[in-house]
Amino acid sequence: MADRKRQANQVGGRPHRRVLVLTEAENVELRVAADREGKSVQRYLVEAGIARARGVDPQAAHEAITALFKVEHQLSKVGTNINQLTRHANATGEMLAAELREELAELRRCLGRLDETVDQVSVEARR
Question: Where would I find the Bacterial mobilisation domain in this sequence (predicted)?
Answer without folding.
Answer: 74-115
